[in-house]
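Ligand: S-adenosylmethionine. Inputs:
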Amino acid sequence: MDLTIRRVNRSKDDARASYNRLSRWYDVIAGSTEKKYREEGLRKLAAQPGERILEIGFGTGHCLAALATSVGATGRVVGVDISDGMLVIARERLQSQGLDDRVELHLGDAANLDFIQAESLDGVFMSFTLELFDNPEIPRVVQECRRILKPGGRLAVVSMTKTNPPGAAVRLYEWFHEHLPNYADCRPIFARQSIEQGDFVIQEVSVSSMWGLPVETVLGRKP
Ligand SMILES: C[S@@+](CC[C@H](N)C(=O)[O-])C[C@H]1O[C@@H](n2cnc3c(N)ncnc32)[C@H](O)[C@@H]1O
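Predicted complex:
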């Protein structure tokens, strides 16, 4: 059984610069392709009025807006993203929808969530972002999610995933990831296992296909 996942071969500065360049084009390139997977993740998280939710890697802010609508005026959404270009676009989206007063945006590397208190959140959401962290960082990010969630809190992750044995699409994608890391920066990981190993109880998992690449949507609960 091949449980290896590719390493990340670029620095955080390169990741930031790449997403800054991409920010104005992200919705044109990936917006509609990724929409149904993001929506499945939001459905599994099922944010409720009054809840406090964190989104890691919010990109152009579609899910921040959806989460802010779900938690309502009494709830709170916190977002963290490494790209200032993405932050500008997400903020514009929230302002245009009148939702900016219930969303707090942070610029930074989500490998460090020190600015969020332990056991202060009801939910954490990530779409196409956990697979951007290097192998030693994935358990650290999941562990940070566990730290900041209240007991019973939910973690919903949408991620490209690796099958066993990996199919042709995964092998091709991994080749691009290795040789053109700024164009194929996400890489398939084992999201469910990572969440399980971080001491979450798996509540729901679904796998669908995006251009032949498996995409896993996982809901875990902190005991
Ligand atoms: C592939 S995009 C996905 C955006 C959004 N979640 C979506 O589904 O449309 C990944 C996002 O994660 C952000 N990101 C990458 N590395 C990060 C890190 N170390 N910490 C926080 N955000 C990061 C990028 O700037 C980008 O906005």
